[in-house]
Amino acid sequence: MSKYAFGVDIGGTTVKLGFFDKEGNILDKWEIPTILDNEGAAILPDIVKSIRGKMEEKGISEEDLVGIGVGVPGTVDKKGNLGGCANIAWRSFNIPEAVQAYINVPVKAGNDANVAAFGEMWKGAGKGHENVVAVTLGTGVGGGIIVEGEILAGSIGGGGEIGHIHVEDNETESCGCGKKGCLEEYASATGIARLARRRLEKDDKPSVLRGGHISAKTVFDAVKEGDAVAIEVAEEFGRYLGKGLGIIAGVVNPELFVIGGGVSKAGEILLTFVEPWFKKYVYRECANARIVLAQLGNDAGIIGAVGMVLR
Amino acid sequence: MSKYAFGVDIGGTTVKLGFFDKEGNILDKWEIPTILDNEGAAILPDIVKSIRGKMEEKGISEEDLVGIGVGVPGTVDKKGNLGGCANIAWRSFNIPEAVQAYINVPVKAGNDANVAAFGEMWKGAGKGHENVVAVTLGTGVGGGIIVEGEILAGSIGGGGEIGHIHVEDNETESCGCGKKGCLEEYASATGIARLARRRLEKDDKPSVLRGGHISAKTVFDAVKEGDAVAIEVAEEFGRYLGKGLGIIAGVVNPELFVIGGGVSKAGEILLTFVEPWFKKYVYRECANARIVLAQLGNDAGIIGAVGMVLR
Questions:
Q1: For the whole model, what pTM was predicted?
Q2: What is the ipTM score, two decimals?
Q3: A178: which chain B residues are within 8 Å (Cβ-Cβ)?
């Protein structure tokens, strides 16, 4: 009887792997390096080799596996077809079929942000909810949308690409994507640092931020100390993110927004800057969504990945 | 064997009804008035009475019916629970159960805009596609989102309420919903007329629109005559709608936007004002969506309604 499953979260530097029982409890987890050479040709063989090593260690065979779930940093459609991939020079191919060339078990694949959202819905902050939007505030802004308990992959895997929805008409600097005024330019870690630098340049108002290293962390640390300039920056961040969440709520009407990623380490105080703006911008018939912090941290990817085969 | 089904589209003035074979072909269609008295207590009994009359006329019994699909002008969740209802003073109740109190056949219910979107996906402009966003440009702006062939109802039926996503920070007039800067304020029939009046007030540039009745129709008629002021208004409309669609594409990544409602009677020329702005605002990984005109007109509601039980 199939009792176990693996969850895999492929990143540009490391691959996270998890060994799970069929209820989705983590029995073991580890990492291997992502070898980017030769258009990433070694990545999938390396993953399966690592999984086979773990199977040998645990004394289990393919028959004991429910399957393998894989999260990938690129657009992945409902059938596991990879479109673009930002950090790995992979061309388009079907991920489950490619993995199954090395191991004969059921395989499912999804975009990493979507898969992490699925993990938070299944085992994290979204537990008990089926309509959840996860927002990852890291170097960039990622997102994953869960509708009726399923990942919204979209037509070509672009579902939940909320970092690049337009929220500001008057932006002069370009986002990494080439457009101007994307949510990512204000709500990511780099975006918050940019807002802070802009604010500091505006006048000479005293602030603990002056002269030091500016990051999302130093901004929110200063907010906690009551620094007035930092609070202004946090308000600005909150206005953009609240606006973005208000728009997203009008489209997909979730029960819950789950905020994760490095920026969310600031804690609950972060949400106090977002909620009032969300309420201002959201349509009343979609205003039921609550905004909470993610709970799974870096494990969201492997948990969501394994969830695709276990749930 | 069940061979037939009914589709019902409840509006604030009339109820549209359709009698269909099980492939979804319209065999007959008609309307009855919507009686709003007594908190709309007569509406559902009237509908079932009308359906029973048609069944008698056609010589069929309940066993011959696959079921009845119902579209309602209010928020309806996945299970057919009605939340708010704008034009009818209905309280919250479960629509399928309420209909089944009068007739013992399978019943499904959805929000009217969502149901019409489902109809366009099934039998109209979206035929052959499973990820479709329908946008209805009428007195207001409605929307319906179809993901993997299913209506995205959202957590409390607010999915696809795209008329009230925020697209303009500098608006001074309020939308009907109480907020400022909603898509509906620029892309609805009334919104286009408002943009036209604003533009005409700005200066004295000659235009055929001056002195006459201003409506979305007169604006687009003037556009077709090459009126420079009307073209400016259409550009403004196109910028807002293109921005809105670009944002929506970043959230749900559809293959197709289907544009319907009274404003869409302007024809293909309407799309030429929207497409360039859509391309400007949309994230590249979601830019695959095409924008087309709806095909089912006023029948989209009954076709989508019956599709919920037939498809």
A1: 0.95
A2: 0.94
A3: 284
